[in-house]
Amino acid sequence: MTMNSASMEEELQLQKNIDEAKEALELLTRQKGRPLRSSIVTFGCQMNARDSEKLRGICEAVGFEDTEREEEADFILYNTCTVRENADQHVYGRLGILTGLKKKNPDLIVGLCGCMMQEEQVVAKIRKSYPVVELIFGTHNLFTFPKLLARILKERRRVIELWDGTDRIVEHLPVKRKYKFKSGVNIMFGCNNFCSYCIVPYVRGRERSRDARDILGEIRTLAADGVREIMLLGQNVNSYGKTLADSIRFPELLRMAARTEGIDRVRFMTSHPKDLSDELIEVMASESSICPHLHLPVQSGSTRILKRMNRHYTREDYLQLVSRIRSAMPDISLTPDIIVGFPGETEEDFAETLSLVREVGFDSAFTFLYSKRSGTPAAVWEEQVDDETAHRRFDRLLETVRISAEKACARFEGRTMEVLVEEENKEPGLVSGRIPHNLTVHFPGTKEQIGQLVPVRLVECKGFYYVGEQVKIMQA
After folding, report:
1. Is residue 167 domain-resident?
2. pTM summary value
3. Are strands 453-461 and 465-470 parallel, antiparallel or unpaired?
4. What is the pLDDT of residue 11?
């Protein structure tokens, strides 16, 4: 594909900024008499994790050595999440620790980026109370990181650059992947749904879809580099293409991704139930490389609460959708997000959530206590559920999910499935990986198998994971 002039200019500017940062870092390296190290710390979702791979790639291109040990780092960057209050508090707590590290190493540079930085009150608090933070940027201008890094390295004074929004999509950044054999692929950014509890549309902006040719080109490049599994990423992948006049829609994009030579597995998240089409179900059922796992947030089993959440579907809609999915793919693994203690939630509403969990039989669930997010409609509603009640319901939900998941996951016991080995287990002699249904399996193996698809008999279900044994394939 021929690069247009605008993207060529962006490429040239990016390389110029990287070169400037590299030159500044080389000077500091000579002064220190040793290599300088960077540590990128990720909070939040898969899209944040993918962003961090770009940030890590830029740091590597500039000349930093990567380290996971913050106490060894000369530059620490937190890529933040703000979906729930505890994510914010976690960052503030960590900044207190970094203040201590700064006293030991006055030359330490600390930066913050990501979703938290798109909230004005957060940035105001950082400015006033955390002088240890010298670099701040947000979600909309992540691609300017090389320029900002060059400034902070050369000027050594606080650099803050935040954008209210953007219509630009810049994906030609250096990337350092966590795994050689699997990778996320951004297909769209932002969200237009405005659920009454959710801060994402405010900090990630409106929906913007990438050109399908760029997405498929990236997937082919990843396959050539040894990637065997990809995950298509977006706040609501089912809305893909709606902002592009001549674009294909998500089911077709998914099919094309699944047929990319060299790619063995394709996953995607996240799907909004109101936008999940029968065409998508058909594509998932017909393409063998698409993993039979669907993350389908429900949030509540009560139609009344779903309406207050502005989710645009009812309990019955969700159950009917699950029925259509299971008719096409009886073995599919389903996982939801569920919120407990949403404003106005009664015992009757909560009971409907528990009954939905039992009826669907999820393989696992991501469960959350409702968290007020400043600027969202639900944050100012008077019918807030008290903490004691919310926590009591949360514990009941966890137990219901556990019982449901143990039964659902056990259906594979005794079967042999391919496991994509991801890492060595903490227990010596074991490796861990995932079957296509996204369930974890631990089995005896070696680190040489990491990145390989290995046939494993699922010997025993342990609730949310399996213990297995490798199956020897007889050669003809």
Report:
1. no
2. 0.92
3. antiparallel
4. 83
